[in-house]
Amino acid sequence: MEQQNAAGDDAPVRIDTSKPHPARMYDWFLGGKDNYPVDEELGRQLVGFAPVIPVMARMNRAFMHRATRWVADQGVRQFLDIGTGIPTEPNLHQVAQDVAADARVVYCDNDPIVLVHAEALLRGTPEGVVDYVQADARDTAAIVEQARRTLDFERPVALSLIALLHFISDEDGAYELVERLKEELAPGSYLVMSHLTPDFHPEEASKKVVDLYRAGGLTMDMRSRERFARFFEGLDVVDPGMVAAEAWHPELGEPVPGQEGVLSGAYVAVARKA
Q1: For the segment 95-126, what is each residue's pLDDT rounded down to a tens digit?
Q2: Residue 162 structural domain
Q3: Contact between 198 and 206 (Cβ < 8 Å)
Q4: Rounded to the nearest 10 degrees, how much is the dihedral formed by the CA atoms of 139, 144, 146, 150?
Q5: SS3 readout for 92-129
Q6: Does the residue 12 lie in any domain?
Q7: Which of 67, 162, 218, 271 lies in disulfide reach of 237, CB 3.0 to 4.6 Å?
């Protein structure tokens, strides 16, 4: 399938609708319309097995809102969101610029459909800046190079990796890409991350979810708390530490409808680079 790219160029954006994509599935879980039958098919299989998955997706997104607001309240005015996914309001830049109108935000994703909708992402406050980078998360050099058009890496940046790294295996360089990005961050920067884990659910249930994703041609590596913690080596994790998404400063946001009694199934943390 071809669509015009967001910049209005004549070159078409090619969208592969032959296999599911995590960003489009996430959109479907959130009730969006920017997905295709192949995404819905796998999404329905997952929800058929675990009906709470859409609520879990909203709980993960609610953590992103709370963490972004918290980091902005610490004085950070630059944000790099890798694996941003399809726009769902409020977006990260709207949360950050609600705290600080001059916040500068760069979104990055590798799914062309996100590029198609980039114009929606690029509407920030007059005082702030919002930009978009199309690149694979593993191509950290390209991401940083393009992000430098908007962000000053000599000053603190909040790096958001929300619901991304469980789609990248150890063998495919998950830890290495995070280390490369951490090296680029100035002191006073923050790493904000959420990650699916098998720790909160029965082993057979987690295995079934992994198997469904893999049957759809997608990598899925739910990491334990110990493996999740490796991403934060060399950083100072802020309170309340590495916890379930619903346990990270719930007072900073509103409960997700249907959240009561539901486990998010994800570890989250926010950590500062000294």
Answers
A1: 999 999 999 999 999 887 777 777 666 788 89
A2: 56-272
A3: yes
A4: 150
A5: HHHHHHHHCCCCEEEEEECCHHHHHCHHHHCCCCCCCE
A6: no
A7: 271
